[in-house]
Amino acid sequence: MDSIERTIHIDAPVERVWIIVTEPEHLGQWFGDAGASRAGDTITMAWKEHGEAELRIVREERPNVFAYRWDANDPGIGDTLVEFTFATEGSGTRLTVVESGFGELRTATERQRELREGNVGGWKHELGDLERYAQTVTV
């Protein structure tokens, strides 16, 4: 399988979830654990254990779609596309994230599979952090 797809419901309006997902001061809290910054179409994410990664924004249609490309935890083999879609669901937001392109990475099929599986667990963890963060922060 070439992609990962996860959908969650967040008990907050779409505009609030958009801000939490796209603005570095929030993104660096729930996605990274050591902050984030943005310069133009690039967000630099930081993690205490994993260092930094560049998220190169390729689509930003407020408040419906936010997408970026990033190296899949293995620089030099290509990148994957991460796309968030936001939809109003009752008084909250249905957020879907799809990460695709693992099959196009320039590495062995087994390594593509390992990277994808690592990110399956990563997205489960990160989206759980996002749900919790959205309940504690005001924007």
CATH architecture of the domain at 3-17 and 57-136: 2-Layer Sandwich
CATH C-level class of the domain at 3-17 and 57-136: Alpha Beta
> What spatial form do the alpha-carbon principal axes imply?
globular
- Describe the largest sheet: 7 strands, antiparallel
Spell the H/E element sequence.
EHHEEEEEEH
Share of β-strand residues: 35-45%
Q: Determine the fraction of residues in helical runs and give it as a percent range.
A: 25-40%
CATH topology of the domain at 3-17 and 57-136: Alpha-D-Glucose-1,6-Bisphosphate, Chain A, domain 4
Chain-averaged pLDDT = 94
**Could you tell me the radius of gyration in angstroms?**
15 Å
User: Which structural class best describes the helix and strand composition?
Assistant: alpha+beta
Number of helices: 3
Name given to the CATH homologous superfamily of the domain at 3-17 and 57-136: START domain
Concise overview:
By secondary structure, the chain is of the alpha+beta class. The chain has helices at residues 14-22, 24-30, 109-136; strands spanning 3-10, 36-39, 42-47, 51-61, 65-71, 79-89, 92-100.
Characterization of this structure:
This protein has 139 residues and is of the alpha+beta class. The chain has a domain at 3-17 and 57-136: START domain (Alpha-D-Glucose-1,6-Bisphosphate, Chain A, domain 4, 2-Layer Sandwich). Helices cover 32% and strands 40% of the residues. The protein has three helices and seven strands; from the N terminus they run βααββββββα. A seven-stranded antiparallel beta sheet has the order 1-7-6-5-4-3-2. It is globular. The N and C termini lie far apart (37 Å). The relative contact order is 0.23.
